[in-house]
Amino acid sequence: MRLPVLALALILPLAAGAQTADLVSPTAFRVCADPANLPMSGKDKPGFENEIAALFAKELGLPLEVTWFPMGPGFIRKTLRAGLCDVVIGYAQGDELVQNTNHYYTSVYVLVTRSDDPLAKVETLADPALQGHRIGIVAGTPPATHLAQNGLMALAKPYPLIVDRRVQDPAGDMLADLQSGEIDAAVLWGPIGGPLTKGNAALTVTPLLRETASPKLFYRITMGVRPSDQDWKRELNSLIRRNQDRIDAILAKAGVPLVDDQGTALKEVAP
């Protein structure tokens, strides 16, 4: 007996969902990550997302298995949705490609300047002091809109957003240009700019907490799982909640600027 088309339409998604949910490994904590996305993840040198993954694997009593794949178009489809892993450690809240866990940190874009430059006192992209200066910006990121709104794009130097970081390093290039004088300031995502400049007294990092114009410059970061893996998401949420202080410590040690959930003040992290 052939099932009606409507019945098939109802049954097939349920079967597919059950099959996907079964992909969560019971024998390993399986993570997908970019092999050259430092300071967040790296194959040859671990980033702070690798450290958090190791923490969770230890808490679960499972070995950590990492599938390395360059972050870019098709990353989720070819890794998480293909069943090669069960979680992506860092994913912005609200992204529709994944099911988000609860966020485990909030951070903000930063302005990086030379410490001996008067621009080191600037706290907002609307500051008139930035006029006439060349600012490095990653093309297509939210602060690029702020530069345009404040008439700063004419002199801005753009750096690419979507690259294979095994062969290109936009953030590193931007900071090198800043130190050489090619640009006068750099705007970077805090979890990149903070760690890359940590310990460098020649550079000053200012979290952009005082921006009032849209788009917002602070974002909550979650872990990404498959939409069908609701039990797995709840287990990860529990791990995040129980280990929040340890996660904060890893991020703070790396140099990530942590802010409150409203993006208005730096978050205090216990030593």
From TrEMBL:
Pfam families: SBP_bac_3. The keyword Signal applies. Coiled coil: none annotated. Residues 1-18 form the signal peptide. SUPFAM superfamilies: Periplasmic binding protein-like II (SSF53850). The keyword Cytoplasm does not apply. Keywords: Signal. Residues 28-254 form the Solute-binding protein family 3/N-terminal domain. It comes from the Bacteria. InterPro entries: Quinoprotein_dehydrogenase (IPR022448), Solute-binding_3/MltF_N (IPR001638). This is Substrate-binding domain-containing protein. The lineage of its organism: Bacteria, Pseudomonadati, Pseudomonadota, Alphaproteobacteria, Rhodobacterales.
